[in-house]
Amino acid sequence: PEVDIYGSGPDRAEITAAAQRLSEKLEVRVHPGIDHAHPEIHDYKIFVNPSRSDVLCTTTAEALAMGKFAIIEDNPSNSFFKKLPNCLTYRSPAEFVTQVQYALSAEPQPLDKAQ
Questions:
Q1: Rounded distance, CA 2 to CA 33, Å?
Q2: ∠ CA 1-47-45 to the nearest 5 degrees?
Q3: Of the candidates 62, 10, 61, 56, which has an alpha carbon nearest to the alpha carbon of residue 36?
Q4: Could you give the 3-state DSSP secondary structure of residue 36?
């Protein structure tokens, strides 16, 4: 399996170190943060936002609007998104793994006009 991580936030060094520890089991590439409209990320179908402090959740909204799965923590700041079919929430590491496995094996549903 392969994972691409995009971001330039304060946890970047810790995330890069964790990715290196996984290198025997998983190919993980860490990239600097880029704009959501950049062509480099259009073909991805899964967006993971593990943030616990992203109160505005802008990146999650953008990913869902682009027709991607969004895997996010089940917390109050994400409650709006839970009603959308491509929003997959988790409360534990085991649930996170389950949601990733589902997203890898399924196709996101297109949003309808009401969503």
A1: 18
A2: 70
A3: 62
A4: coil
| Alpha helices, DSSP H, located in 1-115 | 12-21, 58-65, 93-105
Quick: pLDDT tens for 73-105: 998 888 889 999 999 999 998 999 899 999 999
User: 27: alpha, beta or left, given left = phi > 0 and alpha = psi -120 to 50?
Assistant: beta
7-37 confidence digits (pLDDT tens):
888 888 988 898 888 878 888 898 998 887 8
Nearest-CA neighbor of 88 among 67, 107, 65, 71?
71
The beta-strand segments (E) located in the chain are 2-6, 27-31, 46-49, 69-73, 87-90
Positive or negative torsion for Cα 102, 109, 9, 89: negative
* Model pTM score: 0.84
Backbone angles phi, psi at 92, to 5 degrees: -150, 165
